[in-house]
Amino acid sequence: MASTGTAKAGSLDKLLVEVRKTPPSERMHRRNEVAAHGAAALDRLQPWLEDRALASFAIRAIGQIGDADANRTDVLELLRASRPNLQPDHQQDVDEVLARWGERATPARSRAPSTARKVDLTGEMPLELGLRSRLVGAARERRLMSYAEAGEPLELSMRNPSHRPYLAKLLEAINDHEMAAGRPPLSSIVVKKGESSPGAGFFEWGQQHGRVRDGEDEKSYCSREIEETFAYWSKREDPEPYEDVPQDAADGAAGSGTADRELEAATAD
After folding, report:
1. Do residues 198 and 190 touch, judged by C-beta distance below 8 A?
2. I need a surface site. Which of 52, 84, 215, 253 has the fewest CB within 10 A?
């Protein structure tokens, strides 16, 4: 099953490379090919919304994906969250898609999510927001968790670019906390949806903290950290389920851009 998913992702990635190279006068005719991949194409198309040359194509392809009732909620969230940052002509494209479904062109609110104060690394940042304990629970079950699943209880949507830094910095602070206690990094088991590895920033974090072994590439490093995390927690109870992140760990995460890059890579690829 995993190989089938990987093959489909590879096919979609190859198609998008071809579409990107297609002359603008012909590109729009290929939106049906991309839309045929359904919800799997949404994450791949999201970065195109930020590219003036590709945004119009992306909006129309995303709109076709949203014509399927099963995808409508995700598409509405993506278009509404992206609309405020688009050029006026592309905002109009979004409005036309929404109007087709009888929806209002309501821009996403720019304020931080309601839980933002809980994960503000400039102040106290309690680990027990349900996230760390859920990571421990998943590790004990030897189960991977997607970024979307990790953020959902905190009301953090990975389709909303303004939400990603909150989850990213929280995960990195948890990693720093676990490392200080001599435990493997819990965020190793938080992966891209449908895949089996964390975002690219996780490898960079490992390099910065001296955890990557000589000759070890990104895939091997991530696989080892995941297995070590599973092995550690499958044999233990959580000794500190309500522990707060030490302030020095929080300060370190707040000053690092690795976490932001990890979530950007995980959600924008």
Report:
1. yes
2. 215
What are the residue boundaries of the structural domains of the chain, listed by start? 10-100, 116-268
Predicted TM-score (pTM) of the model is 0.51
| pLDDT (0 to 100) of residue 113 | 45
Reference 223, options 236, 206, 240, 238; nearest CA is 206
| Partners of 244 in the β-ladder | 126
State how far the alpha carbon of 144 is from the alpha carbons of 141, 181, 189, 198, in Å. Answer: 9, 22, 5, 10
Q: Report, in angstroms and rounded to the nearest whole number, the Rg of the chain calculated over CA atoms.
A: 20
86 contacts: CB under 8 Å, gap ≥ 6: 49, 55, 94
Q: What is the pLDDT of residues 241-252, one digit of tens each?
A: 544 444 443 344
Quote the distance between the C-alpha of residue 125 and its chain's center: 21
- The residues, ordered by sequence, that sit 6+ positions from 70 with a Cβ below 8 Å of its Cβ are 39
Alpha helices by DSSP H, listed for the chain, are 2-21, 24-27, 31-35, 42-45, 55-66, 69-82, 88-100, 131-140, 147-151, 164-180, 200-208, 218-233, 247-254, 258-268
Q: Which residue has the higher pLDDT, 121 or 104?
A: 104
Instruction: Report CA torsion sign: 69, 105, 57, 40.
Output: negative
What is the Cβ-side half-sphere exposure of residue 250, based on CA atoms within 13 angstroms?
A: 15
Residue 172 has a pLDDT of: 86
Contact 188/200 with Cβ under 8 angstroms? Answer: no
SS3 at position 253? helix
